[in-house]
Design a protein that fits this description.
With 174 residues, this protein is an all-beta fold. The protein has no helices and 18 strands.
């Protein structure tokens, strides 16, 4: 059954969310839709199920825009799922990271922030009063921030140059 959920907002507290197979930790589940996801504070830990993003869409799912403007956020995608963005064959709107401390790790064949396998996302913007952003990838043939290795499509990626602090030369961590 196809269903849709509204917007998701987290303003504080401690949240731990784990998605089951094909479902995002925070966001949509398999072949379903959620609205915008906004995190402005708190300690948030999200893990996506197989083929889903940690924060964003599940497999074949859709979510609106994803905005992180504060807090401490740790997100891990399942196989073919981005840490923050879309799951396999999923879609998400724009991704904006404007503040806080963010750590995003994908599953295999997915970007740290952006697209899961064959997924589509809007533009990605990282700017603002950032404490730290750590985005990683598992596979060498995907973007750390942006598209995955398979037929994914991502909008423009804009990162404030004053925020880039490369701490690794392994081509897997930004």
């Amino acid at each position: 059954k196809d269903t849709a959920s509204g917007n998701i907002g987290i303003e504080g507290g401690t949240i731990t969310a784990t998605g089951k197979i094909n479902a995002a930790g925070i966001g949509s589940v398999y072949k379903n839709t959620c609205g915008d996801i906004t995190i402005t504070g708190g300690t948030v830990t999200a893990s996506g199920g197989n083929t889903a993003a940690g924060i964003g869409s599940g497999q074949y799912g859709t979510c609106g825009n994803i905005t992180i403007a504060g807090g401490t956020v740790t997100s891990t995608g399942g196989n073919f799922g981005a840490g923050i963005g879309c799951g396999q064959d999923g879609t998400c709107g724009d991704i904006s990271i404007l503040g806080g401390t963010v750590t995003s790790t994908p599953g295999s064949y997915a970007a740290g922030i952006g697209c899961g396998g064959d997924g589509k996302c809007g533009k990605i913007t990282i700017t603002g009063d950032m404490t730290r952003v750590i985005a990683t990838k598992i596979d060498r043939y995907v973007d750390i921030i942006g598209s995955s290795s398979t037929g994914s499509k991502c909008g423009a990626v804009t990162i404030d140059p004053s925020l880039i602090d490369v701490t690794s030369d392994d081509d897997l961590t930004l």
